[in-house]
TrEMBL record:
Active site: T15 (o-isoaspartyl threonine intermediate), T15
Domain Asparaginase/glutaminase C-terminal: 217-333
E.C. no: 3.5.1.1
Family membership: Belongs to the asparaginase 1 family.
Protein name: asparaginase
Amino acid sequence: MSGATKILLIYTGGTIGMVKDYKTGALKAFDFSELLKRIPELNQLDCKIDTVSFDKPIDSSNMNARHWIHLASLIEAHYDEYDGFVVLHGSDTMSYTSSALSFMLENLAKPVIFTGSQLPIGDLRTDAKENLITSVQIAALTENGQPVVQEVGLYFEYKLYRANRTTKINAEHFQAFASLNHPPLIESGVHLKVYRDNLLGNSGSKKFKVHKIMSDDVAILKLFPNMSEKVMRSVLDIPGLKALVMETYGSGNAPTEPWLSNALNLAAERGVQVVNVTQCSGGSVVMGRYETSKHLQSAQVINGKDITTEAAITKLMYLLGSEISPKLFKTVFETSLRGEMR
Ligand code: ASP
């Protein structure tokens, strides 16, 4: 790592940025301008860290596309100036924000590493320090003068994952995230172990481009046994709805009752795009494997393959915002754009 490596740390909010006031016992927001004083270990990393914080740090439950666009714009504005970016974010919706950013940042050739923590940075047993320090270290990793990571990653509890492959799976354990359909990119033990084959290839000389229009004409519907026609219809009939993530069973299966096929066919006629994503945390949709998914194929339902719900909904927002032609929409969605599906 060279002394000249520059990292921009962006604080958006969440538990990680809190410290305990040991006199009162209360949690309060951490002053990030004091970061290096508070965590002197960061000085040993031999890189220059600048910090920028959201004016009003937020709990990640309040994140929306305006915040994503702000984040993407910050990275765009500082792209040439820094070698890597670390985004501190609440863990609750971190997989959504980081998936969204993976689509918004096209031809990314520098690391953008999301991290957070289950316990505040000022807590005695905190996981924040390791998550933060290792994320900075990963963002500063280079090989032959090139950044090792050239994609949006999520680092938590000793593992760097491809962000758009992750899901928050635990509200209690330090290991809060899983990426069941793609192996870790880097593991942190005594040394950092980089799994090169799992990383996205260099996007080469293609120009970095930031997309800032995200549609909100989308919804998610999770199927459940005994779901009534009126539930399905009322979702598909939402005024202005352009696309729906439909969480199905197992390898992409749904009831074969005629009302379901009819509702989907009517939606397809109106140009509503429906994506088939499995409710299982691991594995893939295989359309047509069972009779219970053949009718979805006939209704032009998009095959979400092994994509997460978080990546599917943000990919829909991105593709609708990019005004992909309805004719190409299914093909483009079924293509892996940022390593989000096989
Ligand atoms: N509720 C918090 C948030 O997502 C939890 C965390 O930071 O991990 O902002």
